[in-house]
Amino acid sequence: RIVYVNGRFVPFEEATIPIMDRGFLFADGIYEVSAVLGGRLVDNAAHLARLDRSLGEIGIRNPYDAAEWTRLEEELVARNGLAEGLVYMEVTRGVAERDFAFPPEGTPPTVVMFTQAKTVAANPLAERGAKVITVEDLRWKRRDIKSVALLAQVLAKQQAAAAGVAEAWMHEDGLVTEGGSSTAFIITQDGRVVTRPLSTALLPGITRRAVMRLAEEHGLTVEERAFTVEEALGAAEAFFTSASAFVMPVIEIDGSRVGGGQPGPMTRRLRGLYLEMAAAAG
Ligand code: PLP
């Protein structure tokens, strides 16, 4: 397994980060995850645009332009012979003596990339449908930034794992914000696709945007508004989206069945459309 660290492709076992890295000390960094299908990156330009925006929001210089990022990702995928899975990218504010304020001007950011082999298309969970639990959203107020400070999600997703379910849907003021590592959707009894509008309360999901576009292109009505856990429980269908799950049907929320406890027809259709798009565009 070959990984990328600060300009070099090295064997995983040889890759190290200094203990004074601000990613390690302060979670002072940004990450991105793109899917790989058929050896090709899925919707990667949008992921790189979000990476650039997140870095800008916290004042870390983006070390590469989109073309260079893409070249490095493609080389990493090729070196690992990765046909299907994920590319993980992280940029931190670099290595400096521990001090909360930014390090001296010119401190180079730390850049790390690795791949993970994973079945993303023929995922058996998508056939069965996923169960989720709901948990309070304990995160900070800038969730639009894809920060590596993920403690609230670690705790939420551990609760989900302990409950034997696939994801935790987080809520705040009675409204679902998003999944621990995914965007939450419901389909109303009259067939409208509903997801929360973008704001600082949630991450602007790249898969969310693609699925909304596909839904609209195929004549479905998409409604951007927040919904409650109660509304989700009474919905016709529910699902979540992410670069690694694509479109994942939800069949149970907090132990109560949604949509008869089976992946719903509209969710299946959206997953199919997304897979087609991912396979075609690469
Ligand atoms: N929301 C959160 C909190 C996430 O961590 C993620 C992905 O990891 C998503 C949503 C889904 O985003 P994307 O579709 O870009 O993977």
UniProtKB/TrEMBL annotation:
Keyword Amino-acid biosynthesis: yes
Catalyzed reaction equations: L-valine + 2-oxoglutarate = 3-methyl-2-oxobutanoate + L-glutamate; L-leucine + 2-oxoglutarate = 4-methyl-2-oxopentanoate + L-glutamate; L-isoleucine + 2-oxoglutarate = (S)-3-methyl-2-oxopentanoate + L-glutamate
Catalytic EC class: transferase
Enzyme Commission number(s) from the entry: 2.6.1.42
Keyword Transferase included in the entry's annotation: yes
Recorded metabolic or biological pathway in which this protein acts: Amino-acid biosynthesis; L-valine biosynthesis; L-valine from pyruvate: step 4/4; Amino-acid biosynthesis; L-leucine biosynthesis; L-leucine from 3-methyl-2-oxobutanoate: step 4/4; Amino-acid biosynthesis; L-isoleucine biosynthesis; L-isoleucine from 2-oxobutanoate: step 4/4
Keyword vocabulary terms for this entry: Amino-acid biosynthesis, Aminotransferase, Branched-chain amino acid biosynthesis, Transferase
InterPro entries, A to Z: Aminotrans_IV (IPR001544), Aminotransferase-like (IPR036038), BCAT-like_C (IPR043132), BCAT-like_N (IPR043131), Class-IV_PLP-Dep_Aminotrnsfr (IPR050571)
Molecular function per GO: transaminase activity
Pfam families referenced in this protein's UniProt entry, alphabetically: Aminotran_4 (PF01063)
SUPFAM superfamilies named in the record: D-aminoacid aminotransferase-like PLP-dependent enzymes
CDD domains hit by this protein: D-AAT_like
PANTHER family to which the protein is assigned, alphabetical: AMINO-ACID AMINOTRANSFERASE, AMINODEOXYCHORISMATE LYASE
Protein function: Acts on leucine, isoleucine and valine.
Family membership: Belongs to the class-IV pyridoxal-phosphate-dependent aminotransferase family.
Protein name (record): Probable branched-chain-amino-acid aminotransferase
Species name: Methylobacterium crusticola
Encoding gene, per UniProt annotation: dat_2
